[in-house]
Amino acid sequence: MKSCIRLLLVAAGLLIGASGFAQGTAASAPSASAPAASAASMKASASSKAMAKPAASMPAKPAASMPTTAAAGGGDGKVWVNDKSKTYHCEGSKYYGKTKAGEYMTEADAKAKGNHADHGKACTK
């Protein structure tokens, strides 16, 4: 029984390899001199093709959605408050003006509204 299964797997592999080669060289019907494949090996070939998914059909991961440029309106001692995380970022930091949702305001206003400094580091000294 194991030898039959191995034989079917080898035959299926050969058919898959041959069909890939045939698709690359000519897309015509098989010639009369080509040997006929058994029904079992054709089923194995069809099932192995159905199970294999090409990598190109898989969706790509979405790119990071952080903007590369800061939102307009910053500077003059203002901080950028991320509305979602309730964190404010100082001018010159990585996320200053670059999170999806936020606004500029003074540090005192940000603290009064319950926001906290990024990594606990206040902007003013």
- The strands making up the biggest β-sheet line up spatially as 3-1-2-4
Mean pLDDT reading: 73
Multimeric state: single chain
What overall form do the CA principal axes indicate? rod-shaped
The number of helical runs is 3
Question: Which class of secondary structure composition applies to the elements?
Answer: alpha+beta
Q: Pick out the low-confidence regions.
A: none
Radius of gyration from the CA trace? 31 Å
Helix % is 25-40%
State the separation between the terminal residues, measured CA to CA. Answer: 80 Å
Which key phrases capture this entry?
125 residues, alpha+beta, 4-stranded mixed β-sheet, 3 helices, 4 strands, 12% strand
Describe this structure in words.
With 125 residues, this protein is α+β, with helices and mostly antiparallel strands. The protein contains three helices and four strands, in the order H-H-E-E-E-H-E. Helix 1 crosses helix 2. The termini are far apart. The mean pLDDT is 73.
Secondary-structure topology with pairs:
Blueprint: H1 2-25, H2 39-51, E1 78-82, E2 87-89, E3 102-106, H3 107-112, E4 116-117
Parallel strand pairs: 2-4
Antiparallel strand pairs: 1-2, 1-3
Helix pairs in contact: 1-2
Summarize the structure in short:
This protein has helices spanning 2-25, 39-51, 107-112, and strands at residues 78-82, 87-89, 102-106, 116-117.
